[in-house]
Amino acid sequence: MASIVNDTEMLTGKSTRVNAMEKRLINCGQVDVNQLMPLKYNWAWEHYINGCANHWMPTEVPMNKDIEIWRGNTLSDNERQVIMRNLGFFSTAESLVGNNLVLAIFKHVTNAECRQYLLRQAFEEAVHSHTFLYVVESLGLDEGEIFNMYHEVPAIARKDAFEMELTREVLSEGFTTQTFEGAQAFLKNLIGYYLIMEGVFFYTGFVMILSFHNRNLMTGIGEQFQYILRDESIHLNFGIDLINGIKAENPELWTAEFQQAMVERIREAVELEIAYASDCLPNGVLGLNAELFQEYVQFIADRRLERIGLPAQYGSSNPFPWMSETMDLSKEKNFFETRVTEYQSGKLNWD
């Protein structure tokens, strides 16, 4: 494939064509323009194509039944708290992920096809934020209560603070991935946002909301969460490929000390998520309780650890096997007969 001639070449007459071997995920000098050709990291382009195949908007999903149920007496106070807590967490968390992508990650990922995917992901994060606003407005909820939970609910505040520290580190004055310490900090950021935020923190919320859908309750919210989950699965898989790619190109970063620090960080995240589940489900609802979520969080944390080459820590089993059926996208159908299309290629890993 022919490469794109950049502005420097046109101005100087000197060839600055990039070949695939010169491309690197971080610390590559060829970032003056987004030179997609020749592709080196085909996995990044595949994630981009898969993401584009699932374009959707929240306003396509009717909320009439949800509004009727919310205004009626069908839901208990405990069930309402589950929904409110999840809306409160996700409304903030999605914006944190978007900010980290745009302000921190994009600058330091120096590969064009990865940047192409990051642009797509940033748009999807905006759609997800739009979703929570749409739900809040549709149900007539107190916007201040929902969007301020990250200040007022300790279990949510602790998770958000855990992630925001990673963004502050990468945005600090003089930060660069050119140093050993900087490159490790950037890798820690990627693990924190892709494996922990999107791969652990989000998944308990998906179980809670989809449990309502299994009972034919709040199906508008449930449908939107299924679309978000489709997006998040690709976000997670892209992040894991990016992390493993950086490890392969920079093996000196993956020290025994760093590996242990990442294991400890994920274990800390598991404890934060168990506390969050207890806050959402103090009395248990929908056949769910905090004990089941402890097992589930440990189960998915082990899966995330193993996919970046770290040892499993818990050995827990999946207490929600119905999630595999709910989230199976290999079937030739559209969710709820809506206009959102199936992914055209690629396999998604829910666990």
Write the layout of secondary structure elements.
Layout: H1 7-12, H2 42-52, H3 64-71, H4 77-108, H5 112-139, H6 143-147, H7 149-152, H8 154-171, H9 180-214, H10 219-249, H11 256-280, H12 290-307, H13 322-326
Helix pairs in contact: 2-5, 2-10, 4-5, 4-8, 4-9, 5-10, 8-9, 8-11, 9-10, 9-11, 9-12, 11-12
Q: How does CATH name the architecture of the largest domain?
A: Orthogonal Bundle
Order of helices and strands: HHHHHHHHHHHHH
Main sheet summary: none
Query: Low-confidence spans: pLDDT under 50, at least 5 residues?
Result: 1-15, 328-350
How much of the sequence lies in strands comes to under 5%
CATH superfamily (homologous) name of the largest domain: Ribonucleotide Reductase, subunit A
Can you give the helix content as a percent range?
55-70%
Counting copies of identical and different chains, the oligomeric state is single chain
| Tertiary shape | globular
CATH hierarchy, class of the largest domain: Mainly Alpha
| Cα gyration radius (Å) | 21 Å
- Number of separate structural domains: 2
Rounded mean pLDDT is 86
Q: Assign the CATH topology of the largest domain.
A: Ribonucleotide Reductase, subunit A
- The number of helices is 13
Number of DSSP strand runs: 0
| Amino- and carboxy-terminal Cα gap | 36 Å
Report the structural category: mainly alpha
